[in-house]
Amino acid sequence: MNNYRDNLAKFRELDAQVLGISVDAAPSLKVFAEQTGVQFPLLSDFKRQAAAAYGILNEERGFAERATFVIDRDGKIRAIETGAAAIDPAGALASCRAIR
Amino acid sequence: MQSRIFAAGFALLLGIASLAAQEPKPAVRQTRTLKVGDPAPDFSLPDQNGKIVRLSDFRGKQNVVLAFFVLAFTSG
Known about the structure:
The structure holds two protein chains of two kinds. Chain A has helices at residues 2-6, 8-13, 26-36, 49-53, 84-87, 90-99; strands at 16-22, 42-44, 57-58, 63-64, 67-71, 77-82. The two termini of chain A are 22 Å apart. Chain A has one domain: Glutaredoxin. By secondary structure, chain A is an alpha+beta fold. In chain B, a hairpin with a 5-residue loop joins strand 1 and strand 2. Chain B is an alpha+beta fold. The N and C termini of chain B lie far apart (49 Å). Chain B has one domain (2-58). Helix content of chain B is 26%, strand content 16%. Chain B has a two-stranded antiparallel ribbon. Chain B contains one helix and three strands, in the order H-E-E-E. Chain B is elongated, with a radius of gyration of 24 Å. Chains A and B meet through helix 1, strand 1, helix 3, strand 2 and helix 4 of A and strand 3 of B. Strand 5 (67-71) of chain A pairs antiparallel with strand 3 (63-68) of chain B.
């Protein structure tokens, strides 16, 4: 999440809301946010329902794969990046710029 | 002998050149359940402060970047 933390101002300039999400419990996310200085919501998908709905749940290991979804104001998915591409926020930034 | 070394060096150079010429992988446009253009599934989940956040909270207001990460206290 550090890359998103470091680029938060750019997302804000584009009026895009960044939401981190993992299968961690909320108290773990609170400590994680404090340690890393993340300033955006970190959502606790403890029951794995969102990860399953978004098709990125690693069922064998029980956690979400790295993936970023850009969702427009109409609730439509405009970009999907997974794996290493999702760690670099450049693609998500470009998508946000395109649909600004 | 010299020509063999030359040939091996040339092959190595070719290998490096072909690696460098590889196109970056195109962005993945789909997952097992969703593709670009699909409606994003709504969710209602607590954030790190216990506040419930719904995707639909942002409908008509802001674009959302939903960044799934593997686990807290790991990089990426």
